[in-house]
Amino acid sequence: MRPLTEAETRAVFEKLGKYIGENIQLLVDRPDGTYCFRLHRDRVYYVSEKLLKGAVSIPRDSLVALGTCFGKFTKTQKFRLSVTALDFLAPYAKYKVWVKPGSEQSFLYGNHVLKSGLGRITENTAQYQGVVVYSMADIPLGFGVAAKSTQDCRKVDPMAIVVFHQADVGEYVRSENTLT
Amino acid sequence: MAFLPSEPPDLHVIHQRIKSNMEVLQDFKVKREEGRTRQEYLALLRRDMAAYYSYSDFLLKMLMDIFPLPELINFLEANEVPRPVTIRTNTLKTRRRDLAQALINRGVNLDPLGKWSKTGLVIYDSSVPIGATPEYLAGHYMLQGASSLLPVMALAPQENERILDMCCAPGGKTSYIAQLMKNTGMILANDSNAERLRSVVGNLHRLGVTNAVVSNCDGRQFPKILGGFDRVLLDAPCSGTGVISKDPAIKTNKDEKDILRCAHLQKELLLSAIDSVNATSETGGYIVYCTCSVTVEENEWVVDYALKKRNVRLVATGLDFGKEGFTRFKDRRFHPSLKTTRRFYPHTHNMDGFFIAKLKKFSNSIPKPQKDEEPAAEAANPSTGPEAVMEPQPKKKKLEGSKIAQAQKKLQPALKSGQSLKGQRRPLKAVRPSPHKSHAQVPNRKKQRVKQNGQ
């Protein structure tokens, strides 16, 4: 377990910025104590300072996880957000997409969101903008990347993809073993 | 009527015979057949029940010691039907009323669990898989047996405390603790099985628990790694005799060795759990010990052992239902305060069989073991000398091993001659069994007693 290096921090923040923009500030400066990012076995954990102090005496080999896992660094040093970060993306998300109840299930099975399943979308979402996907009952379901801008979404045919799937909460069941 | 020679197993006939024998045994003086002893009746009944419910002879014998006959039948019957599916609302993310409404909209038929729980819901039937609804995936609830809510309620964690969950997989109780602490303080969720920890990590993230550290250590190393906790929950690994309805394999694949091996591990774990607690903690200093087993060896015996070895006392669990723990069982006498422990049974409470004890640590010092008393006490405790059985266990410490060897040496001549038995065993006055329990005695133990009485 160690703090992130300069390059790693940049990679993480760059990725987070795609979904929550300047709201990253709110993740780092919190009123309820200091929170920080720690790297452990290529995973990035977001953890409060207090918890961190408690965890230092656990041997590295037997430490499995602490706080919230945000994602992991791939072998080529790219940062990949995992669905476990959703709890911290959803409240701060700038661009959102709501899916209709009928296509909730399809998204939770790991499929892209089609135009036919699109309930609402934030105004002026740009193409390839990171978005958080919600159900119509405002339950966060996952996140992805807008395949079309809001303008284009109006025109495309019902079977066209509007959001590329990146992560969804179905992974908690589908791929529990590779999650963290 | 009752004593047909063993025929090809016809379940209906066996069932009839169980019934009629039960009747006889309830009112033995009047209904018995001349010349048949209670022992014979009981042996037959046990054989029949073992065949009818397909239990191993050993397990059934043990259950007969725990339950009186009519209750035993209820227990066996209850093990044949599954317990109701229950879920716990994750109050970190939602409220029970909202969750219930959302699930009803999905075609789930449910009800609040009971007056004692503010977060539990019982699922009667459902048109969707309850473990894969969007609400489940979003972490609004956890699938969890009703009985596993109880130890956490007994633990009663407070906000901003440091809590250790020693055997946490699959994380149901851990997340309940986090929920009661409102994600403050720190929970160390430990389990010795790395495979099972994956589900812990998944569940904690799904339920939005942020105050947990997950570690993969042997629980027995605990005060060494990290100590000074306010509260410790020890949900010890056990033989699982309380959850037979979940896993019918337990009926046949457990024998005495397994039980005693569990009991031994549980004692070690409980001592390290107690050592990891800070007795001077302002708010805490509590240990909750629980198992999903109904055997006395894994429950009262373990707690009684801890009471002798450490500066702890039993306190009320804060649960107003459940049966009191045993203070006496066969030839064993436990500390009277074991009354405050709680037992839960499938047939009386419609939840998995469970045992919960809450201990309060009142001093951080560890009482020194009295040397000469030790081996004698160990030898006197178990009825059939479990040390002999447990010896091949690899993890035994050397010192203990030698102690056991001593104890065995002493024990063996005792069994042969019966001469030195008096010194080894506990005073005999206490052993006089109540008529109720006498039927459970094994013939050769009976002999020993006769010898002893002759002394």
Automatic annotation (TrEMBL), chain A:
It is found in: Nucleus, Nucleolus. It holds the Pfam family pre-PUA_NIP7. Coiled coil: none annotated. CDD domains: Nip7_N_euk, PUA_Nip7-like. Keywords: Nucleus, Ribosome biogenesis, RNA-binding. GO terms for molecular function: RNA binding. It comes from the Eukaryota. Residues 95-170 form the PUA domain. Gene3D superfamilies: 3.10.450.220, PUA domain (2.30.130.10). GO terms for biological process: ribosome assembly. InterPro entries: NIP7_N, Nip7_N_euk, PUA, PUA-like_sf, PUA_sf, Ribosomal_synth_fac_NIP7, UPF0113_PUA. The keyword Metal-binding does not apply. One of its GO terms (cellular component) is nucleolus. Its main location: nucleus. Required for proper 34S pre-rRNA processing and 60S ribosome subunit assembly. Interacts with pre-ribosome complex. Belongs to the NIP7 family. PANTHER family: CYCLIN-DEPENDENT KINASES REGULATORY SUBUNIT/60S RIBOSOME SUBUNIT BIOGENESIS PROTEIN NIP7. This is 60S ribosome subunit biogenesis protein NIP7 homolog. The lineage of its organism: Eukaryota, Metazoa, Chordata, Craniata, Vertebrata.
Automatic annotation (TrEMBL), chain B:
Residues 365-455 are annotated as: Disordered. The active site is at C292 (nucleophile). Residues 423-455 have a biased composition (Basic residues). One of its GO terms (biological process) is rRNA base methylation. It comes from the Eukaryota. One of its GO terms (cellular component) is nucleolus. It is found in: Nucleus, Nucleolus. Residues 75-362 form the SAM-dependent MTase RsmB/NOP-type domain. Keywords: Methyltransferase, Nucleus, Ribosome biogenesis, RNA-binding, S-adenosyl-L-methionine, Transferase. Belongs to the class I-like SAM-binding methyltransferase superfamily. RsmB/NOP family. This is SAM-dependent MTase RsmB/NOP-type domain-containing protein. It comes from Callipepla squamata. The lineage of its organism: Eukaryota, Metazoa, Chordata, Craniata, Vertebrata.
